[in-house]
Design a protein that fits this description.
490 residues, Rossmann fold, 17 strands, globular, binds iron/sulfur cluster
Length: 490
């Protein structure tokens, strides 16, 4: 049986969609290619179980729509599986419909956060055959393919939706009982890892790649975040298993930087054992590590140990400088903790990257400006090293989306608009202020104070290359938000 795991061609005049492995979807003029870890594990698992697997990421490989349809025809797969997200779901429905028209026998499957939230919708709007819900869609896709091969011998696990005539039915709720240590290390060649090894603004050193040491966030409560819907329960791989994979990546692929894209990296005893293992194996001298982290989850001593273990880039969600907002979105943070923890991480030699969001329906323009001030202060002081500024988007089924429905906050009914180009929730001020705030924050990168600190931090040629890539990204982000004139809402 032949399976294509696919990101179809979805480029538009808005830019390149950051779809794979993406919690917060954005179109980028200057694309960042994020290695899609769970689909890559799915491909590896299938190959290991004797299936014929084709990896077809049209976004990373710049494949046009017509070439894509020709390639699918040529490959003659039995099943084609796509990761989806709200802003591209309509385009993916169209693609599935054309594929099914050209070959009615071809089976198609969706997975991802949007279809987990709204599994039936895709059956109503497209000819899709299966929807895999929950975050363990690597295990589910293997289960589905084995079942298709041997319907009597292999029963379907919970979480799979399938077409039954005009309707859809499911095998029940998905479970997250799979043992992550049983997964094979990703077959990087099969999944074209080099396509993603350079074009990523977060890497200081290349080639870089991604792993996931856990699924997905041990906090998992932020009301805007869609990934807790995929992974309502947190599981971490064993420290040994993760260290073995890092060693394999260094020794086999000569990877110089690894981003762990677990929603929030494990802390406490797990983190200590992991850092000590990196040091004992000497991996801290060979590879740089990056991860997602929460402010206040690690103290100064912990940050120092992380630095010693090879960590560099830590991505932290600031989200807002207003306590009422932080409480409301369940960040469980105070502004004081944000400032202290960010400063300590930097003083320990780490490079905090902060994410900031604008467009909360309850915030005034003055409050949004408080957030700008905090972001600008952290950057100018050098406590935060880099940043990403975005628009809050309530993805389906998240607590924020539910609140939007209850309070009538949504200004659009079209998923295409959930692409972070502009707010989709009613604001207490003009929506034209949002791109101005985002751009203003990116422009902090051009302040003398910021540039001076960056020059002082240069240690080697990789730093200069990194700053050049980061500079291009900042220009790209300013352009991403420049061309968005607010349009009339419903
Ligand atoms: S900390 Fe919040 S935003 Fe980040 S992954 Fe966890 S739940 Fe999502």
């Amino acid at each position: 049986m032949k399976i294509i795991i696919c990101f179809p061609p979805l480029n538009s005049e808005k830019g390149c969609p950051t779809l794979g492995q993406n919690r917060q979807f954005q179109y980028f003029k200057e694309p960042t290619l994020i290695y899609p870890v769970v689909p890559a594990i799915a491909a590896t698992l299938l190959k290991q179980n004797g299936f014929d697997v084709v990896w077809l990421d049209c976004l990373a490989q710049n494949i046009t729509q017509e070439d894509f349809f020709a390639m699918v025809k040529e490959q003659t797969p039995d099943i084609i599986a796509f990761e989806t997200k709200a802003p591209v779901i309509k385009k993916e429905w169209e693609i599935v419909n054309r594929l099914k028209k050209e070959n009615p026998k071809l089976l198609t499957a969706f997975f991802g956060d949007h279809v987990t939230a709204l599994p039936q919708e895709s059956f109503e709007h497209s000819g899709i055959d299966y929807v895999l819900t929950g975050g363990d869609y690597d295990f589910l896709l293997l289960n589905l393919c084995k079942h298709l091969q041997d319907p009597q011998g292999i029963s379907l696990e919970g979480g799979i939706w399938m077409r039954k005539g005009e309707a859809a039915e499911s095998t029940g709720d998905f479970t997250l009982e799979h043992n992550l240590d049983m997964l094979p290390f990703i077959d990087r060649d099969l999944t074209c890892w080099k396509d993603y090894a350079y074009k990523n603004g977060n890497y200081r050193r290349t080639p870089g790649t991604y792993i996931m040491s856990g699924r997905d966030c041990w906090w998992g409560k932020c009301t805007f975040c869609s990934w807790p819907q995929l992974y309502p329960k947190f599981r971490a791989r064993s420290v040994k298993n993760v260290l073995d994979e890092i060693q394999h990546l260094v020794e086999t692929f000569h990877v110089r930087e690894i981003m762990d894209d677990t929603g929030t990296f494990s802390v406490g005893a797990w983190l200590k054992e992991f850092c000590e293992g990196m040091i004992e194996r000497g991996l801290n001298k060979k590879v740089t590590l990056d991860c997602n982290m929460r402010f206040g989850a690690v103290d100064f001593e912990g940050y120092k140990l992380m630095r010693k273990a090879g960590f560099r880039f830590l991505l932290f969600g600031v989200e807002s400088a207003n306590q009422a907002t932080l409480d409301r979105i369940k960040k469980d943070l105070t502004v004081e903790v944000i400032k202290k923890s960010c400063k300590e991480a930097r003083e320990a030699g780490l490079y905090p990257h902060i994410t900031i969001m604008f467009g909360y329906p309850w915030e005034t323009l003055e409050e949004a400006n408080n957030t700008f001030d905090l972001g600008a202060w952290l950057l100018k002081k050098g406590y935060a090293y880099t940043m990403q500024s975005t628009v809050v988007i309530p993805y389906p089924r998240t607590p924020l989306f539910v609140e939007c429905e209850e309070k009538g906050w949504l200004t659009t009914g079209s998923w295409d608009d959930f692409d972070m180009k502009r707010p989709v929730m009613k604001l207490g001020f003009s929506e034209s202020e949002i791109p101005k705030l985002v751009q203003k924050l990116y422009r902090v990168s051009f302040s003398l104070e910021f540039i001076f600190r960056k020059i002082l931090s240069i240690r080697e040629i990789d730093d200069i290359k990194y700053f050049w890539r980061a500079f291009l990204k900042v220009i790209g982000h300013i352009l991403d938000f420049k061309r968005n004139k607010p349009k009339k809402r419903l």
